[in-house]
Amino acid sequence: MGLNSTVSAERVHIGFFGLRNAGKSSLVNAVTGQELVIVSDVKGTTTDPVKKAMELLPLGPVVIIDTPGIDDEGELGKLRVKRAMQVLNYADIAVLVVDVTKGMSKADNELVKAFESKKLPYIIAYNKSDLIGEAEQETEKEIYVSTVNKLNIERLKEKISSLVKSHSESKRIVADLIKQGDTVVLVTPIDESAPKGRLILPQQQTIRDILDSHATAVVTRETELAQTLDSLKNPPALVITDSQVFGFVSKIVPRDVPLTSFSILFARYKGNLDILANGAKHLDKLKDGDKVLISEGCTHHRQCNDIGTVKLPGWIKKHTGKALEFEFTSGGEFPEELSSYALVVHCGSCMLNEREMQYRLRQAEDEGVPITNYGTAIAYMNGILARSLEVFNTLHKS
Fold first, then answer.
1. CA distances from residue 29 to 49, 60, 66, 395 in whole angstroms, order as listed
2. Other CB atoms within 10 A of residue 307 CB
3. Can you give the pLDDT at residue 197?
4. Is the pLDDT of residue 144 over 60?
5. Which fold, 8-163?
6. What is the CATH number of domain 175-265?
7. What pLDDT sits at residue 72?
8. Are 327 and 291 in contact (CB under 8 A)?
9. Can you give the pLDDT at residue 316?
């Protein structure tokens, strides 16, 4: 990934849906100006959602998703349809591609209902309009296109762009907690799980947000934290730590210096900090035999001392003193049913877009299952959750 590229989790996700042979793949290729997906007259050529991160004018950085046909048949077809429908959980915008010579099918209408129930902005693109002579006039939700003569392809991109609601200015990782000229200390442990030669994504993104605020980022390991604080002329405006060393860092940072973690910042940025902080309190309600789901939004090589599969279960068992059963998911995996779990502990979701994280929170809430994240859970188990949230409580105070 280039230094100036935008991570997929921060890109607008645009999903193309429809029946087999409605021309989804052809339209994706026409919109992107690239041969991203194979086009064939054979039904069911697209067998899994195909994702491509790219720059798409006038939108900017996006992820284009071409999905399997929602009318696929057989046992394998049902699995493909299921995967297509899962895209609704993380797509920011949906484009329903309809063969204009056949019109809206029952499955198409059901998709529209699904878009609306999930509050997913959508456009219906009537494809193959070159086959019907003069195309009808577009409406707010509908447009007539053709990949053969490129009819209204640019107009479709403009309509998609109009649905994009940028949150880059309204939602920030840390910028609204600091001011120009502030110094922020970031504590970043380097262990066997740290990528060789680079920082992990939440650390990179937080540093960039600090620099964009015309503040100063001072990065140190926990072993040099005390020395770093002593070297500063004035106390920092904020200390942000990796959750794994929360307890250690809290003993070094003076009580009057605001302290929080990367994971807690991302709980607010991508999720709902109140829900996740309240979920942490359910750690004290766990009983022998309870199942706890630990879910990571990324997929990576598991280390012998991995935080998700090794450290967190150990800390939770030590804190609760209970005989618990742990299950683990990663990447796009997330159970369709959560009712068997007493608690869900989620990562900071730096590799998931906001819509996907919000979906997972709603699912837990709908099923009455408490959910927390790594940072809030670790802070709670170290008895410093209240302290780690104080910086947000004073956000609007002068």
1. 14, 17, 10, 46
2. 20
3. 73
4. yes
5. Rossmann fold (3.40.50)
6. 3.40.50.11420
7. 79
8. yes
9. 97
Q: Where in the chain is the domain with CATH 3.40.50.300?
A: 8-163
User: What local confidence, expressed as pLDDT, does residue 166 receive?
Assistant: 45
Tokens of 30: 């026409």
Q: Which residue from 66, 69, 46, 56 is spatially nearest to 12, judged by alpha carbons?
A: 56
Kindly state the tokens that stand for 155: 């107009």
The CATH code belonging to domain 275-381 is: 3.40.50.11410
Pairwise CA distance, residues 95 & 153, whole Å = 13
Considering only residues 81 and 262, tell me which one the structure prediction assigns the higher pLDDT. Answer: 262
**Domain span(s) for CATH 3.40.50.11420 in the chain:** 175-265
